[in-house]
Design goal:
Elements: E1 2-7, H1 12-23, E2 28-35, H2 39-49, E3 53-56, H3 59-69, E4 74-77, H4 78-86, E5 93-96, H5 104-112, E6 116-119, H6 122-139, E7 143-145, H7 148-157, E8 165-172, H8 193-196, H9 206-214, H10 216-228, E9 236-240, E10 246-252, E11 257-261, H11 267-275, H12 289-292, H13 307-317, H14 321-337, H15 343-355, H16 365-380
Parallel strand pairs: 1-2, 1-5, 2-3, 3-4, 5-6, 6-7, 8-9
Antiparallel strand pairs: 8-10, 10-11
Helix pairs in contact: 1-11, 4-5, 5-6, 6-10, 6-14, 10-13, 14-15, 14-16
The protein binds magnesium ion.
């Protein structure tokens, strides 16, 4: 039985994690749940799973929940609540699926309390990959990937060191504007918010869906892979695979490739992270090859999707630059969703913010957070 703390229980990854826990009641116990705003869903989840501790961002909502739940469950709030949950003595693993940078401090607190962490929030490794992986080594805990791509690579690597790897191949669906004949570069300025929010193969949150359309999502994943698997950016490649069946691949030094495949369903990588090193029987995900037909692959188009070039540069330079890329992108996506800038201006904003940044090498957490704050101001300007 694994005692799981779930930070971000009401979001897309959070609700999938709850499903996985319901699939495997004899293996997974949700001992603590934290949510951002959705206190109704948090209350439902609490009644069903009876965690000992919960937390919600807004202190007023926490007071309401305390009144409703009485003494059956302890209720915390805010950033403090997240830290409390991340370090619960009974926890075996902390799954972090909070949007934005709020997951960073709880991730480090969990590691320092000797907990394995399962990472769904990309910001944690993109912003502070060096610090997080160093701390995990120091405290002897695992950093497990929840993202489908990184879970695939982790499964294919099966403990092999990066010296046995020629290249990691992250697959990308290519997003809704993959087709260069339908969507030539000249038409990118006409892309509407509604069109960008329609993802061809995954149902996800709003920010990550826009990131999939610009390919910034893949860019962030390249940087995550660099840290998770201790490999330099030059050996992290991207291949467009519209069917999203091959979740990623490892090309070994002998030329052999291993890939992990399935029908796209986030429950699978979540379950693997929570049951690792075991595989637990579940009927949830079924893959029917004859029905799938063709699996196709193509090179990404950096002309139309410069996010990949920007991410590679950020990963190669390192220091505070990935945090700047991440923060500028967050601000730009928000501006696009609010119809203040057009689609190509998302990438332009990130590029200009990166150009204006004075990179700090091997930054402290404080320097990373300062760079994040600076980039938000600069991008907004
Ligand atoms: Mg992914």
């Amino acid at each position: 039985m694994k005692n799981v703390v779930l930070l971000g229980s009401t979001g897309s990854i959070g609700t999938s994690t709850v499903k996985v826990a319901e699939d495997l009641p004899e293996r997974i116990r949700l001992i603590a749940l934290a949510a951002g705003n959705n206190s109704e869903l948090l209350l439902d989840q609490t009644r069903k799973h009876q965690p000992a501790v919960i937390s919600i961002n807004d202190p007023a909502k926490a007071r309401e929940l305390r009144k409703t739940l009485g003494t059956t469950c302890e209720v915390f709030s805010g950033a403090e609540g997240l830290l409390k949950l991340a370090t619960l003595p009974e926890a075996d693993i902390v799954l972090i699926a909070i949007v934005g940078t709020a997951g960073l401090q709880p991730a480090l607190a969990a590691i320092r309390a000797g907990k394995d962490i399962a990472v769904a929030s990309k910001e944690i490794l993109v912003m502070a990959g060096e610090i997080v992986m160093n701390e995990a080594r120091k405290y002897g805990v695992r950093v497990l990937a929840v993202d489908s791509e990184h879970s695939a690579i982790f499964q294919c690597l099966d403990g092999k060191p990066s010296a046995s790897v020629r290249r990691l191949w992250l697959t990308a669906s290519g997003g809704p504007f993959r087709d260069a004949t339908l969507w030539p570069k000249e038409k990118f300025a006409e892309i509407t918010v509604e069109r960008a929010l329609k993802h061809p193969s995954w149902v996800m949150g709003r920010k990550i869906t826009i990131d999939s359309a610009t390919l910034f999502n893949k860019g962030l994943e390249m940087i995550e892979a660099r840290w998770l698997f201790d490999i330099e950016m030059a050996r992290v490649g991207v291949v467009v695979h519209p069917q999203s069946i091959v979740h990623s691949m490892v090309e070994f030094v002998d030329g052999s490739l291993l890939a992990q495949l399935s029908t796209p369903d986030m429950c699978l990588p979540i379950q693997y992270a929570l049951t690792y090193p075991d595989r637990a029987a579940s009927d949830r995900v079924q893959t029917d090859f004859p029905k799938l037909g063709n699996l196709t692959f193509q090179a990404p188009d950096p002309e139309r999707f410069p996010a990949l070039i920007l991410a590679r540069r950020a990963g190669e330079v390192g220091g505070t630059l990935p945090a700047v890329l991440n923060a500028a992108n967050e601000v730009a996506v928000e501006a696009f969703v609010n119809r203040k800038i057009n689609f190509p201006q998302i990438t332009e904003t990130v590029s200009r913010t990166m150009d204006a940044h004075q990179v700090v090498a091997h930054p402290t957490l404080e320097q990373i957070l300062a760079a994040d704050l600076w980039a938000r101001g600069e991008a907004a300007r």
